[in-house]
Amino acid sequence: MTLVAGVDLGTQSTKVVVCEADSGAVVRSGSAPHPDATEIDPGVWLDAFRAASAGLLDRVAALAVAGQQHGLVALDSAGTVVRPALLWHDTRSAPAGTDLVAELGGPDVWAHAVGSVPVASFTVTRLRWLAWHEKASADRVAAVVLPHDWLPQRLRAPGAPTTDRGDASGTGYWSPFAERYRTDLVTLAFGRELALPRVAGPAEVVGETGSGMLLGPGTGDNMAAALGLGLGPGDAVVSIGTSGTVFAVSAGPTADPSGTVAGFADATGRYLPLVCTLNAARVLSAVGDLLGVPLSTVDKLALSAEPGAGGLTLLPYLDGERTPNLPAARGLLAGLTRANASPANLARAAVEGMLCGLADGVDALRVVGVPVDRVLLIGGGAASAAVRTLAPALLGAPVMVPEPAEYVALGAARQAAWALAGGTDPPQWTINAAVPAAEPDPGVRDVYGDIRVRAAELLR
């Protein structure tokens, strides 16, 4: 039996799964936590990988790493980390994004240059922030890599760092149209050119570890989830984790000047238009904390309330927001009366508000020409009975809930199996999915949309 491993270098933890290369069946797995922070010493990732993989990698033939997108790991000429890595959910570079959009000629120019309009989460805006706010550190920087680039570089024999087109497409300086770096945009952001990792092919072997495991190219976490799920035309994923993401496979690159849809590449040679929200599963946990109840009780309360929560609507921008681009926004509770001021209505409003934000993402994919015939609901938030029950009506498409699994790590493992076997396509792995029961939607999205529009200026 040939074994492969996949690593999910996430925001909150590192997870490792070991699978059979032919079937994808999980043989063993492990995880280790990360600190809850928006910047982090990359050495934490190496320690977490070692802890998560301890005792798991015996007889593993190949490994690939999928990582949180956008993180800025700045290196000096010796390859030493210059400062803690700035992670995707750090919003301090929002003004830099605004400046860069204007300096290149506006959002339409950016969208057609790199598929996306840069906001606070993109690597290119962090380069500008670093250049302007930490000049001593910036002067030392010789190269920049992403989290998924950095970890394999520490695992393999000596060699130049590599990345893949999927993760590179989230930097803001790699073009899915030209399939190359836009080094002029690095210079625009940072003031000078920097060394960038080579972009490896989808199934390329990029090296091996000291113990002889082959290394696949790895990719971004969303690209790995798409690979783990075997995403096909007409399928969209709604992932409810630390962030909320909506993405689908596309045959060609997309450009959305509104900035709602990021025109990423995927891990197979196709494209992965994606919408991301900063606020997802943590909205439910925050409401649970506010009510002093566990998430299971939030579920029960939400399902006990009527659709529409008695007129109570939550705009869940608790940590600022990326879509819409309101990094300084805060949450807003609208329509509160004595009659609807109950724990059940607040729980219901939290679930509805979170799903309405994600439903806007599904609609945005359709606007740029990406068909959505079916939604696959994944992530920690998909375990919520209330989320599964409300999702079909609010997302506007049939919903399937794949069995709980670490799909980012599974996608990385599938890529490792592909690199090991070679060929034009990844191995065929199957997943099981259920169709949840559904409640009707009596105009919940219309109310949410109206309040979102009316509150936009207040929340800026």
Structure description:
It is built from 15 helices and 24 strands. Strand 13 (207-208) and strand 14 (214-215) form a beta hairpin. The model has no long low-confidence stretch (mean pLDDT 94). The chain has 460 residues and is of the alpha/beta class. Strands 1, 2, 3, 5, 13, 14 and 15 form a seven-stranded mixed beta sheet that branches. A seven-stranded mixed beta sheet has the order 18-19-17-16-22-23-24, with helices on both faces. The protein has helices at residues 43-53, 94-104, 107-114, 123-133, 135-140, 147-155, 165-168, 183-190, 221-229, 281-291, 295-304, 343-367, 385-395, 407-421, 444-459, and strands at 3-9, 13-20, 26-33, 39-40, 60-67, 73-75, 85-86, 143-145, 162-164, 174-175, 180-181, 198-200, 207-208, 214-215, 219-220, 235-240, 244-248, 262-265, 271-277, 313-315, 332-334, 374-378, 399-402, 433-434.
